[in-house]
């Protein structure tokens, strides 16, 4: 039996966030990344119904992305999305929750663990950046403007190790979201550093995060080098690392079954 996943709008701090909310059990928030056309539905469509069999799954679109509002403002960044995640949890009556964060979403997960450790249960960090870096993939990301051909290049050149798995419907969906009014301005604000990271000394703070953590990465990630996850696994006191062979930044797409099994097993057995 497939769990039905529905998204609806919640007003948080005066702005509408589109949020998928499914299942029952221990709450887990799924936090997407910050790339053109990113959204919760695009990132978590296969994982949400799997986890909803055993957990309450909450998957918001960050402000500036997907179906959420995209107001003109200058503070799009980790601090904003961290505070809004906590405010959304309050709105939904959720005190404690686990976090699964993809890329930038993982960085928000770390900030949640630093800012509100008493509210976080377990962490799953996917392709999460610890230290700044530059690469051709980063240049493509920053130079993107809403265009179908540029989106196709971005997806095939940056996000996957095997370009053959990329479909035209995926490219079209990402392009359409990236072209929504306010979407490009929001992500460009983030790329420009419109809001400085809450902590510029993240590596020094990692040993203070006591939460059980599953660290996941694709070996051939061109956007966030796998060395970031190695640093996380070595620095976090209660972390385990899984590296997916023959995969890139989007290993949940390239290795969906293994990814879903790893996450489900970790969350289900975390308290055993």
UniProtKB/TrEMBL annotation:
Protein's organism: Rhodococcoides trifolii
Molecular-function GO terms, alphabetical: hydrolase activity
Keyword DNA-binding set for record: no
The entry's keywords: Hydrolase
InterPro entries found in the cross-reference section: AB_hydrolase_1, AB_hydrolase_fold, AB_hydrolase_sf
Classification via SUPFAM superfamilies: alpha/beta-Hydrolases
Name of the molecule in the record: 2,6-dioxo-6-phenylhexa-3-enoate hydrolase
Organism domain of life: Bacteria
Domain called AB hydrolase-1: residue spans: 26-142, 200-255
UniProt key word Cell division: no
GO CC annotation terms, alphabetical: membrane
